[in-house]
Amino acid sequence: MKKNHSHHILKQNLDDLLEAKKWLVHSYEVCESLMNKGDFSVSEYDAIESFLSRYARVCDLLLRKVFRSIDLYELEPQGSLLDVLNRSEKRELIDTSLQLREWTELRNQIVHDYAHHDLKSLFSDALGFTPQVLKTIEKTKQYCKKLFEIE
Predict the structure, then answer these.
(1) What is the dihedral of CA 54, 122, 44, 128, to 10 degrees?
(2) For residue 89, is pLDDT > 90?
(3) pTM for the whole thing?
(4) Per-residue pLDDT tens for 100-140?
């Protein structure tokens, strides 16, 4: 695959991630004040559902699109998600691959637990992980900026 094509893919995936990040930040700011609330109104529940959906989308874009696109750009062999996480740790985009596994597990719970029986726990975990996710996005953005400057 030509470097030009992998550059385009990485740039597009990074742009998509940065756009999704804006909406995650918006939802995070709306929902932060709901953290210690007992029962949620319908509009608060809707806000939480939007936040969780946006959290899951950002995690997908970061882990499954952008990190894989970086691998493609740097001509790394395609491997398992664990391989991608380990390389992201080596690049210092994340603190530990365990951290991203936690984000992925939460993402899977959000996406696959349609009834959200434990909404408060999902909500609490997503609120707790979001600042770390945002920090990782910023590191990734800076990493990609350096990659693009090298070209």
Answers:
(1) -70
(2) yes
(3) 0.91
(4) 889 999 999 999 876 667 888 999 999 999 999 999 999 99
Q: How far is 94 from 135, CA to CA, in rounded Å?
A: 9
Q: Take residue 16 and report the two structure tokens written for it.
A: 């998509």
Range of the domain at 37: 3-150
Separation CA 28–CA 22 (nearest Å): 10
| Domain count for the chain | 1
Which pLDDT band, with edges at 50, 70 and 90, does 1 fall under? Answer: very low
Decide if 7 contacts 69 (C-beta within 8 A).
Answer: no
DSSP 122: H
> Any idea what the CATH number is for the domain that residue 8 is in?
1.20.120.580
Residues with Cβ within 8 Å of 110's Cβ and at least 6 positions away in sequence, in order, are: 52, 53, 55, 56, 116, 122, 126
Q: How far apart are CA 151 and CA 148, in angstroms?
A: 6
Q: By the 8 A CB rule, do 140 and 62 touch?
A: yes
Kindly report the number of other CB atoms within 10 A of residue 17's CB atom.
22
